[in-house]
């Protein structure tokens, strides 16, 4: 296997956190940010409570200080037309990478691509259709990408759904597990050989601290026996973590395997 340890798989734990306040506590990190700005969550002594101060430090510590430039690197970011995905794509474009915005809403993504091009001066910001709730769309995206590009250096599996009413993907999977995990699982599988060929390369799976509340209920993967949207999200984020760890383990094992004679 050519990539060996140079193919790096990581899971980023950001975006959502569990604030320990029951099911209503599943809130995005920006809520804690607003509490900090508005002086909420303070003790009588005027400071943040010890518990929330710890959470704040944990959520605010992930600042990228690297100044590395990425000219010649090819990047795919799923769900890059809003939120974390958009900001990630913008920063990668600013560093000179060729960035693909892989999004379900192509019209919105085109607007974001033009915005990023204007802000960064990098015209290599491209939009491609990708609906992670439909395996046909995933396969079509991968097929077109592999026909267009000789390399793939960074795959950022960022897109996802959160706490949506019960529904299923085009292939009959519960929406959270289908989009957040299975969709990215298939996408990574389809692009894996190209990543290996392009080493050093990297896959980033965006997960959440909510994975601590996740459980994989194999007897109820599609949520047909019981369903709670917040917990369904947690389960899918745990699946992201398990996928990342197992994929990294298998690649490491294969990279150290003796070549066949």
From TrEMBL:
One Pfam family named in its UniProt record: adh_short
UniProt entry tagged with the keyword ATP-binding: no
Protein name: Retinol dehydrogenase 11 isoform X6
UniProt lineage: Eukaryota, Metazoa, Chordata, Craniata, Vertebrata
Domain of life, source organism: Eukaryota
InterPro entries: NAD(P)-bd_dom_sf, SDR_fam
Family note: Belongs to the short-chain dehydrogenases/reductases (SDR) family.
Presence of keyword Oxidoreductase: yes
Coiled coil regions, renumbered to chain: none
UniProt keyword list: Oxidoreductase
């Amino acid at each position: 296997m050519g990539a060996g340890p140079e193919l790096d798989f990581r899971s980023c734990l950001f975006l959502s956190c569990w604030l320990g306040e029951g099911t209503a506590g599943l809130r995005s990190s920006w809520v804690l940010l607003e509490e900090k700005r508005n002086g909420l969550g303070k003790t009588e002594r005027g400071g943040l409570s010890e518990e929330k101060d710890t959470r704040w430090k944990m959520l605010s510590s992930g600042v990228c200080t690297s100044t590395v430039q990425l000219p010649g690197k090819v990047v795919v970011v799923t769900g890059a037309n809003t939120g974390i995905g958009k900001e990630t794509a913008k920063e990668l474009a600013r560093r000179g990478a060729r960035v693909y915005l892989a999004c379900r809403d192509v019209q919105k993504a085109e607007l974001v691509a033009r915005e990023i091009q204007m802000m960064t001066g990098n015209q290599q910001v491209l939009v491609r259709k990708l609906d992670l709730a439909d395996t046909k769309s995933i396969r079509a995206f991968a097929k077109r990408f592999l026909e267009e590009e000789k390399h793939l250096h960074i795959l950022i599996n960022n897109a996802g759904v959160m706490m949506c009413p019960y529904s299923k993907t085009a292939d009959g999977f519960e929406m959270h597990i289908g989009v957040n995990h299975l969709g990215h699982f298939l996408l990574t599988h389809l692009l894996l050989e190209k990543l290996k060929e392009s080493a050093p390369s990297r896959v980033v799976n965006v997960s959440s601290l909510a994975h601590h509340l996740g459980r994989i209920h194999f007897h109820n993967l599609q949520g047909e026996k019981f369903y709670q949207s917040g917990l369904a999200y947690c389960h899918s984020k745990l699946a992201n973590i398990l996928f990342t760890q197992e994929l990294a383990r298998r690649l490491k094992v294969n990279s150290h395997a003796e070549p066949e004679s």
